[in-house]
Structure formats: C-alpha cells, structure tokens
C-alpha cells in the first residue's frame, strides 16, 4: 500500500514539474529573414538584436522575443483596387499642385527594408506600422518638394517625368536622408502614373501634336535641305571629278609629249654619240694602223739596215780575207772551182776563134784585175 502511494506521489510530482517547465522554459526560433529583439520582465530591451536561430528562454515567462521581417517590402500610394502587391491604403494616390496650380494625382511605388543596425531603435520608437509612421509621411514630403516646383507639362511625361522620378529617388535613397537615419533603407522608387485634369490633358495632347507637327515640318525641311545639299554635293563632286579628270588628261598628255620629245632628244644624242664613238674608233684604229705600219716599216728598215750591215761586214771580211798574204792562191783555187762549175754545163761548140783556154785566160785576167790589179799571163791555146 505504501508503494502505491509512493508511486502516485511521484507521478503527481512529475506532472507538476512538467507543468512548471511549460511555464518556466520558452523555446523560440528566429527565422532566416528575421531579426529578433528581446525584452525582459522588467521592461528592459537588450541592445543586441537576436540573429536567426533557435533560442531557449529560462525562465520563459520573464522574457519575450519580437521578430521583425528584414526582407524587402513594397509600399504603394495609388488608386489600384485591393493593393495585392504591396502595403498601403486603398485608392491613395497623392494629390499635389504643379507650379502653375494644376492638380497632379501621382501614383507611387517604393521598395524598402529595415536596417539591421537600427532594428532595436525601431522597436523602441515605432515597433509596428513603419509604413504609416515613418515611410508614408517622409515620402509625401519629398514628392511634394520636387513635384510642386515643376509645371504639369514638364512632370507629365517624357524627360520631365524621368527627371522628377530621378530627383525623388536620390532624395529618398541618400545615405543622410531622414528615412536612413530612422532605420529605413529605400531600395527603389517608381512613379507609376501622373493624372491630370482631362481638359488639361487634351490641351497638352494638342500642344504635343502641334509640337510634333512643327518638329515633323522641321525634320521634313531638314530632309529636303539635306536632299538638296546632297544633290548639290553630288553635282559638285561630279564637277570636281570631271575637272580632275580633265586636268589629269592634260597633265598626262603634256607628260607624254615631254616624254616623247625627251626620248627623241635622247635617241638623237645617242645616235650622235654612236657616230662620234664610231668616228673616234675609226680614227683610233687608223692611227693605230698607221703607227703599226710606221713601226713595222721602221723595224723593216732597221732589219734591212742590219742585214745590209751584216752582209757588208761579211763581204768586207771576205774581201779582207782575199786581200791577205797567200790569198791569191786561194782565190785562184776558188775561181778555178767556179770556172769549172761554169764550164761544165757548156754543151755544143765554141765559136771558131774561141777556145776553152782563151775563155779561161780572159776570165782569170778579169779576176786578177779585180783582186790584185795585175794582168794575167795569156795562156797559149
């Protein structure tokens, strides 16, 4: 019995502990696109935000974690029914006046997110409804400052609309803007539409049509002028081309004539030079031939002179030999040889009163007369 009571008490104690743990321990998870801000039981706010993860709070009933979406969000101020793609009021386009007093109904679209560095300050000062408490008032102020300084025509379309949107974007996204200081980062801003009074729009359209017609007339005039200028340029180009061609032909003709004349002069000069060279060559050849003949004649004369001198000397020596002592016998021997050689070929008969002895005697006397000056003794027949 005691064991049963003990088991019952233990079960009751366990249940009490479980119930107490439910109230004492709190488990919370900060998602990946969130940042948490923790408050304690005494109303204090921890200065450091909680990064994405799961936290166990003990005791849980004394602490509370507020989670804020840090992803990009869209806020609109337009007249689209049921703002299904952004936060904002229904039919909330912003009505401002242009510099000339025309109503301009501007539809706006802005993408923004919380600054992680200021999330604790936002929790303390704003907590919820950042769009209405911070974003919308500042957006209206900046749009009014930039839109009311322009005419409706400038802001309605074209470059004027682009310039207006650019100026508003720069003011909202500047690092020192009021939104940035409050912890709101603007990522993008767009003017969806600017609505004007229909009658004024008709005037704008009519003015734009007139401007377009004037521009078209100007363009057509420019096109016609360009066409005329092109035709003029083409005619001028053709004229200049013809002029250049004529000048070229003239210069080519002159150059050709000059070339022909120069070629003829060169040919005549070359022919004269050839004649001159031929004459000079003939002259040189004749001179050389005459010089050759002169030298040959001189050499022949010298040879003849030398030969004559040699023959004279030989004759002199021979005659000298004949004039020496005892030479008469030698002479006679030689004469005898010659005479016998001469008489050997005598055929036939001699004249009646001519004998061989008589012929020999006459020949010998002639020889002696020549060599010694003596008369030979007549030989008896």
Outline of this structure?
By secondary structure, the protein is α+β, with helices and mostly antiparallel strands. It contains 9 helices and 8 strands.
Uncertain runs: none
Helix content: 55-70%
Number of strands: 8
Rg, rounded, reads 76 Å
How do the helices and strands follow one another from N- to C-terminus? HEEEEEEEHHHHHEHHH
Quaternary structure classification? single chain
User: Percent of residues in beta strands?
Assistant: 5-15%
* Biggest sheet layout: 4 strands, antiparallel
Total of DSSP H or I helical runs spanning 4+ residues: 9
- Compute the separation of the termini in Å: 231 Å
Mean pLDDT across all amino acids:
82
What's the shape? elongated
How does the helix and strand content classify structurally?
alpha+beta
What does this structure look like?
With 381 residues, the protein is of the alpha+beta class. Helices cover 61% and strands 15% of the residues. The chain has nine helices and eight strands. The chain has helices spanning 2-24, 119-125, 130-147, 152-156, 158-173, 178-181, 198-323, 327-344, 356-371; strands at residues 26-30, 34-40, 53-57, 63-69, 73-77, 94-97, 103-114, 184-195. Strands 5, 6, 7 and 8 form a four-stranded antiparallel beta sheet that branches. Strands 1-3 form a two-stranded antiparallel sheet. Strands 2-4 form a two-stranded antiparallel sheet. β6 (94-97) and β7 (103-114) form a beta hairpin. It is elongated. The chain starts with a helix and ends in a 10-residue tail after the last helix. The mean pLDDT is 82.
